[in-house]
Amino acid sequence: MGRNRLEAFSDGVIAIIITIMVIEMKVPHGENMAALLPVLPVFLSYIMSFIYVGIYWNNHHNMLQASGKITGSILWANLHLLFWLSLFPFVTSWMGENHFATAPTELYGVVLFMAAIAYFILQQRIIAPGAPTLRRAIGRDWKGKVSPIFYFIGIISAQWSPTGAKLIYLGLAFLWLIPDRRIESLLIDSKE
């Protein structure tokens, strides 16, 4: 299978994930701005999840651009990542509908943790058959190494402070929003 086909399939799944997340938001009853207050937690959880899905989409795109041959193990690793991303609509809705209660916030963290692990596995599967550009670009990848640790801390802390867990998840999202130009710059350099 070619890289373009894998990327198109992944883009389609991610687009569906975002669509499902927005469909899960219910229109409030009422015609004034106060009617929005009860759905504010759902909207806030949607924003955070949208940011996370966008981060994965962006990094996934850059990573595939640096990939070489697409193997069967890459296909399965990609499906593994898409599986965890496909759970975002469920955990987003559950967390928002229950005003960031303990169990939904913990499960949200589990999905974030597992998506990070799945992304790491996909990255390693792409590097394995020979993607020297990606290997050089990733280097030490400190964000990729610390994120699962902090997701795990968020999961544990949700038992005592769901707000603390949300702040950890949000902080990591903002960490990843800061563009990481390593792959992009190496791809540009290799084309010149």
Helix content: over 70%
Envelope shape: globular
N to C succession of SSEs? HHHHHHHHH
How many DSSP H or I helices? 9
Overall tally of structural domains: 1
How many DSSP E strands?
A: 0
Strand content: under 5%
User: What structural category do the secondary elements indicate?
Assistant: mainly alpha
Distance between the termini: 27 Å
Q: What is the overall pLDDT average? A: 89
Ranges where pLDDT stays below 50 over 5 or more residues in a row are none
Query: Rg, please?
Result: 18 Å
**Major sheet characteristics:** none
In short:
The radius of gyration is 18 Å and the shape is globular. It has one domain.
What does the secondary structure layout of this molecule look like, with pairings?
Elements: H1 3-23, H2 40-65, H3 72-86, H4 88-97, H5 102-127, H6 132-138, H7 142-157, H8 162-177, H9 182-191
Could you explain the architecture of this structure?
This protein is mainly alpha-helical and 192 residues long. It has one domain (3-191). The protein is built from 9 helices and no strands. The protein has helices at residues 3-23, 40-65, 72-86, 88-97, 102-127, 132-138, 142-157, 162-177, 182-191. The relative contact order is 0.13. The mean pLDDT is 89.
